[in-house]
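User: Before I run my own analysis I want an independent prediction to cross-check against. Here's the chain; please return only the C-alpha cells and, at the end, one sentence I can use as a sanity check.
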Amino acid sequence: MSLRSTLKSKIEHLIETKNNYNNALKDIESLRNKKNELEQEINEIMRNLNMDGKIIIVNNQKIAQKQVTISQSLTLKYIETTLEQYNSAKHSNKLDTKELLNYIRMNRQKYTKNEIKIN
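Assistant: C-alpha cells:
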C-alpha cells in the first residue's frame, strides 16, 4: 500500500471518528440537560414537601440534596475588572492593571500542538 493511499485511509478514518465524537458530544449535552431538568424538578418537589437536606433511599441508593457553591472562572477579563475595582477602592499605591495583565498574558506557560482541522 502506498503512502498516499495510507494517508487517504487514515484521513477517512479520522473523519469518521470525528463525526462519532461530535455525535457523542451532542448526546452527552442532551443527557446533561435532561439530568439538570430532573434535578431542578426534584429539588422543587423536595422544597415543597419541606424535605430540604433529607436523605432519601431509592432502590438501595442514597439520594441527598446538597447545596454547592460554584465560583466564577478566573478569566483574564475577570481578573482585569477585579484589579481595576481594587485599584479604585484602594486610593494609594495603585497598580497599573493593563501593564500587570499584559505581563501575565505574555508569561503564561504555552505549548504547541499540531492539529488537523475538519470542517
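Sanity check: Helices lie at 3-48, 76-89, 97-106.
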